[in-house]
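Note to self: the last two entries modelled the partners one at a time, which told us nothing about the interface. This time every component goes in together.
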Amino acid sequence: MSRVPSLVALVLVGVLTLTACGGSSSAASNLPTKKIAITINGSDTDPNGTEIDVKVGQPIEFDVTADKAGEIHVHSSPQEQEFEYPQGSSTFRVKAIGAPGLVTVESHTLDKVLFKLKAE
Amino acid sequence: MAGPVSILIAGGILPEHGLGGAQDLPISRGLVILGAGAAVAVSFLVLALAWRTPRYDAATSGRPAPPWLASLVDSAGWRGALRVLGLLALLYLVVTAVFGKDLLTNPIFGIFYVWIWVGMVPASLLLGRVWRAISPFRLINAGIARLSGSEPGDGMLAYPERLGMWPASLGLLAFVWMELVYPHNVDLSPVRLWCAIYLGLMIAGGAVFGSTFYARADPFEVYSTLVASASVWGRRDGALVIRSPLANLDATPATPGLVGVVAVLFGSTAFDAFRDSTRWLTFIQGTGYSPYLQNNLGLLGFCVAVGLIFWLACVATAVGPEHDRRALPGQLAVSVVPIIVGYVVAHYLSYVVEIGTQTLVLASDPLSNGSNIFGTGNLVVPYWLSYHPTFLADIKVLAVVVGHVVGVVVAHERAIKLLPKRHQLTGQLPLLAAMVCFTVGGLYLLFSS
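The predicted structure of the combined assembly is written out below.
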């Protein structure tokens, strides 16, 4: 009767110890700028809901090509960022992602998720 | 963790809809395999090694709470104070809803989606039946009863027993629809309308059916009371007792509709994780149909699938000819409660800490005019969990696995009470398979989103 709780405890301790050494996050400062090309044509976008890997602290640049002017939101926390892009080509410097996490980047104009930045 | 208000963290940008701020990193593949393996292993260990005669009896389990505590929580003063607290909170909400600005700095969104919905889970787990204690509807109902000279428990009509908790599961579905699907969920007027309808239904329902209505049909009270059954606080013949969560869960009566409640709670939380996954996003943005329609179907599909898997597993349980197998889902549904609690902890931990604190900051300025009425306006939001993703992931997997283990043990206890001797072990297999399915599915969603 008392064997079950101790076995359970053993398994749980196992889970914890095995995972304690997994993963690492180091914010390097001299990372190359991550350039992300965004194409918006009517209601079609590229990327269209994919995941893009970046490093925590890595500078990011959006290269936007659009058939109409609009707005992009970067749902980073604690501070959001928003960019108004004109028709044609434009480039934006995005503040680096400060904490590990998934940051949604959406076209505010089209109400669509362009991609998610996976910051590790 | 992308609830609708994650965006509250933003300082002043007002998006059209509530797509989240930063979400947690997905947990690693190794951790998923480890957690899933642990869940499966523990399930079979419990089956093979645990007790074979019923261990808990709701009529005798638990020891009485210390007399001072019991007399305190049962005193008219304490009960009245909590009710007044609930009423003041309601008045505060009404003021923010009516006179507050339609901005994300209005604390009503964080209170509605984070404090009430998510915060209620840890509160009920630690303190017991929180919503029941502070429910302003019970106070209003008692006031009406006193004026008319009747008992608060009696309404004009007896609450139909067969209806059970089905109204609450509909109410819960209405809430999660608002939270996860409705595109304008962080606009003031829809939230206000939702709350007004809820308020009206609760007051009318209580007037017609008495306070039984709240225990069966108030979605928040039903959720809170269900989570409280996994706490150490219980009642035996009305007296406050302290007992292990296992014994407390076992003492939970099988009410009609409990399967519906459990299906909506687990299905919606799973859908919340799923709808953030890139797979779902690329899919719904690529089909050409409206994402709104597809999210509606997705939410409904998840809830129905969870209910169906559970129902089928219960009905597939081997029983003797004298047993009605259609009664089994209701009798076993309580075993899913710890799985729900574990998954809610995993899914919302960083969300409730970060956005919950942010809401406390905003709550101090309910009308967005720069006031700081509670003195909490300058609190610093703790992002510690976000900065320690490995630790956060460990906690998540631990919560899911612990929830699973407790659920399996509760199901085992129920099974040996209900099933004939020869089916006691094999009879548990379908349900065990369903629970492993929920847990591994939940872990997979934490990994893929």
